[in-house]
Amino acid sequence: MFTRSDAKADSLTRLQREAEEDTDYQQIQELASRPQGALSESTAGKQLAKWRKVSTDTPHRHLTDESISSAFPAIHEVAAPSKPRVNRWEAHQVRQANSKGHYVRDTEEQGTGGKANSDMGYFNRLPGELRNVIYRYAFVPSPADQPVLLSGSDLVCGTGACVHQKLPIAAPGIASTCKQIRNELLPIFVTENGFRFDAVMVRNRCAGNWVKALNCYARMLKKVTLEVQVFERDFRRGAWRTKHRMCALVLEMPAGRADERFVVGFGELPAEKVELSGLKRKIEGLNDGLGVVGQASKLAAVLFSEELAELVFRCRK
Fold first, then answer.
1. Could you tell me if 305 and 281 are in contact, meaning their C-beta atoms sit under 8 angstroms apart?
2. Apex CA 260: angle with CA 259 and CA 266, to 5°?
3. Which end of the chain is more exposed for a tag (fewer CB within 10 A), N or C?
4. Which residue intervals are annotated with compositional bias (Basic and acidic residues) in the record (predicted)?
5. DSSP assignments along 148-205, one per residue
6. CA–CA separation, 212 and 173 (whole Å)
């Protein structure tokens, strides 16, 4: 009588014969990364012998398609190098750029530290002309002759280190968010605005620190106004009374003039005190090219000069 165990033995014999004579299997063996010996010594032969022993010892167990396929060795594949993991924010930026047609040069570049997308985010998708309109609308006053007022504090700069020597204080805060925004905003902010320093900044020399904080952009300044506090005493009703008023010292820069010279207007400042301070002679020397080179350096030399400090002191006597 033909039993189930005989059928299993015949199937195992046929399986081994087909494995030894099959040309496809031989081609697979040639494609393997390491050579293999005869079938009896190979992994397939050992696996077949293992399955044959198990099936003959346990009559109730039979071979399935999955067990037969697992008997053959798999082709040795070379593992692909793992790509660096991209964090969730960078992956979101890549998806957004691809969905809008701004394709990223290399997706792997996002995980290796090189950012193909700008730090400006969605703002970078606007045309440069439209971004300039936004900068002017936000940071250039609507009346063209209205200067930007810069104020200081005696409690901060008068008692310790001046805070105006740092760019986040000297320039609008948005200029510190991104290098590209800073390079686009500061030329518009500095060139198209006039600046007025209050008497506290002039007295504590914060105006000079503000110019130094702008660095190379300070040479684009066109007009600077300095407030000087003037004290006056008069005799009324048998007693001396003191009052003060604000006077403006206007300094036009070479960047805003065709002759490329410094021109200063003292306004209502007392003429005798201006002459005693020597500030006029200081500015004439800068126009003649004495000692200092560069527009920004010359402006800083005026704001840090002892002649301006003496003028402020004499006006407050």
1. no
2. 90
3. N
4. 1-18
5. EEE---TTTTTTS--GGGSHHHHS-GGGGT-HHHHHHHHHHHHHS--EEE-HHHHHTT
6. 17
Six token digits for residue 145: 């002759």
pTM flag (> 0.70): no
Q: How far is CA 13 from CA 20, 62, 124, 146, 224, in A?
A: 11, 14, 71, 100, 101
What is the C-alpha separation between 273 and 269, in angstroms, rounded?
A: 8
- The string of DSSP codes covering 42-111 is SHHHHHHHHHHHHHHH-TT----HHHHHHHSPPP-PPPPPPPPPPPHHHHHHHHHHHHTT---S-GGGGT
Read off the pLDDT of residues 16-64 as tens digits, 9 standing for 90 and up. 676 666 544 444 444 444 444 444 566 666 766 666 665 555 454 444 5
Q: Residue 265: enclosing H or E segment and its boundaries?
A: strand 263-265
Q: Which tokens in the block code for residue 271? A: 């003429």
